[in-house]
């Protein structure tokens, strides 16, 4: 496609346009303008109600309303120009070339816009969710048409282009109302296994935020070189996850001390044999 030739042809055709400015033509145009304005308002209202019933995101609703309103006014403009005797095909040809040039210049922006619409429709996350997007993690502050804004745990604001978000692996930690926690802890070989498990279960039973269904899991998971490893798995509400986790970590050592359970570290036992 020769874009330069298209521009030349469209410009020549557009320059040859002649307007009919007689009184009947003016009255006809005024009537056409009135009908088009009323039609745009009515159609805009109907479309707004339809979008409102679709439970779409507010940002996406606003974008679609604006885009459809622009399309309606554009069509109304073509109808009005046609009533003036203008050959609108020439104008459409010129605008298509201009649109092609603009789309090439704004290629990255349009990619972000398309990805933003995709995110708002598919809703892999919502404002307030804690997510990991590629190497970035934080609470979603806003999902715009061009950028997704995250607030990191240390209160930094990160703006990620929507095209990068749509192409990345997304982990939503608030996607479900409950979440499973897993903690691994070690104890000495000299500590009775049932005592260790009973001490851990007592801590679990004392925390009302931990769910009874699914049932808590406390089992031996590995026999290491210096200690026995225990795996703890419990379920809680997603919003309670970190509070439960840190409370459990704070309370394990004092509970083990009180029960006489030794929490060991990697070491080597040397036995001296006299001959």
Roughly how many Å apart are the termini? 97 Å
Q: Work out the helix count.
A: 8
What is the residue-mean pLDDT, rounded to a whole number? Answer: 80
Rg computed from alpha carbons, rounded to a whole number of angstroms? 34 Å
Query: The biggest beta sheet, please?
Result: 5 strands, antiparallel
The count of strands amounts to 8
- Backbone structural class: alpha+beta
Output the helix-strand order: HHHHHEEEEHEEHEEH
| Uncertain ranges | none
What is the helical fraction, as a range of percent? 40-55%
- In terms of DSSP E residues, the strand content is 15-25%
Shape by Cα distribution: elongated
- The main sheet orders its strands as 4-3-2-1-5
Description:
- The structure is a single chain.
- Helix 1 packs antiparallel against helix 4.
- The relative contact order is 0.08.
- This protein has eight helices and eight strands; from the N terminus they run αααααββββαββαββα.
- The model has no long low-confidence stretch (mean pLDDT 80).
- The chain is 52% helix and 19% strand.
- It is of the alpha+beta class and 275 residues long.
- The strands form two sheets. A five-stranded antiparallel beta sheet has the order 4-3-2-1-5.
- A hairpin with a 4-residue loop joins strand 7 and strand 8.
- The longest helix has 31 residues.
- The radius of gyration is 34 Å and the shape is elongated.
């Amino acid at each position: 496609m020769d874009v330069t030739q298209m521009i030349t042809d469209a410009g020549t055709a557009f320059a040859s346009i002649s307007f009919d400015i007689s009184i009947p033509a003016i009255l006809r145009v005024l009537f056409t303008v009135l009908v088009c304005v009323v039609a745009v308002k009515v159609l805009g209202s109907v479309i707004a109600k339809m979008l409102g019933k679709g439970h779409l995101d507010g940002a996406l609703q606003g974008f679609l309303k604006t885009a459809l309103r622009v399309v309606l006014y554009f069509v109304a403009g073509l109808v009005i120009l046609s009533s003036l005797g203008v050959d609108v095909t020439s104008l459409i040809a010129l605008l298509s070339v201009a649109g092609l040039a603009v789309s090439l210049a704004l290629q990255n922006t349009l990619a972000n816009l398309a990805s933003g619409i995709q995110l708002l429709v598919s809703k892999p996350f919502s404002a307030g969710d804690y997510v990991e997007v590629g190497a970035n993690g934080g609470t979603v502050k806003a999902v715009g048409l061009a950028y997704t804004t995250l607030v990191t745990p240390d209160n930094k604001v990160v703006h990620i282009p929507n095209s990068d978000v749509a192409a990345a692996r997304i982990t939503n930690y608030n996607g479900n109302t409950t979440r499973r926690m897993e903690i691994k802890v070690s104890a000495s070989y000299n500590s009775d296994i049932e005592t260790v498990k009973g001490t851990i279960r007592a801590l679990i039973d004392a925390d009302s935020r931990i769910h009874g269904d699914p049932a808590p899991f406390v089992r031996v998971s590995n026999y290491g070189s210096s200690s026995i490893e225990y795996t703890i798995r419990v379920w809680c509400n997603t919003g309670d996850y970190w509070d439960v986790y840190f409370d459990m970590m704070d309370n394990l050592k004092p509970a083990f001390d009180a029960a006489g359970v030794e929490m060991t570290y990697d070491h080597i036992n040397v036995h001296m044999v006299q001959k």
